[in-house]
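Standup notes, protein team

Yesterday: finished cleaning the Paractinoplanes lichenicola set.
Today: ABC transporter ATP-binding protein structure.
Blockers: none.

Input for ABC transporter ATP-binding protein:
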Amino acid sequence: MLTQSVDTLAAVAAVDLVKVYGSGDTAVRALDGVTVGFARAQFTAIMGPSGSGKSTLMHCLAGLDTATSGQALLGGTDLTKQSDKVLTKVRRERIGFVFQAFNLLPQLTAEQNITLPLELSGRKPDAHLFAHLTETLGITGRLGHRPGELSGGQQQRVALARALMSRPEVVFADEPTGNLDSRSGAEVLLFLRNSVRELGQTIVMVTHDPGAAAYADRVVLLADGRVAGELDRPDIASVTDALQSLAVAR
Ligand SMILES: Nc1ncnc2c1ncn2[C@@H]1O[C@H](COP(=O)(O)OP(=O)(O)OP(=O)(O)O)[C@@H](O)[C@H]1O
């Protein structure tokens, strides 16, 4: 079988990635030979119908789930070959995460949440980066508060600062605006967009929302566990059309 070529300089790449859940009659082939690269300093959105494998692809590329076969490359590291101990270190030191449900630790202040991953890996937070991120995100007045005392938008901005504090090779964002009103959602997307331009951050975001995907440089479309197409410089109309075509083709 021919394997599609993949940009070996990509920050993150999947090569012929297969993920099968379960076995026998109940086996589900969630990823069916995905080959795709995510370029450095680019903002890519992953889209596709429900069940197309978006979360599974992100989880395998982030070392949160193990693939059945193929490679999940972060820089030069094939995550499919690493021990759980190494994967924990990779996630903490080389990857930033932003989730729909924020996933902040409720007993810690905003500031402690932001610096925790660095402290766990024995690194000292960069004071300039901390000031830059918290000022840009407008949360300097909220740093002593616990997540329960913050709005959803403020919690997600704390999560964004946490994700970027370690200068990660990639930020994986899983429906980062899913729990936010449209104004807070737009602020989060604009921040992600600007972090690509100003900090050279690489971002991979799973979303159902064509409006969110329009902030990205590129959209990768999945269907039935395979790459079904991609769009460069997407806008809401082109993303909506592509998703409709996928739905019709099924
Ligand atoms: N832990 C699991 N056990 C069994 N099947 C699973 C598991 N996780 C996902 N699947 C199946 O794998 C396929 C891909 O799921 P995945 O969650 O990656 O899709 P998705 O595109 O992210 O969907 P959605 O947009 O609904 O979140 C689906 O058929 C799903 O039911």
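Follow-up from PR in the comments: The mean pLDDT is 93.
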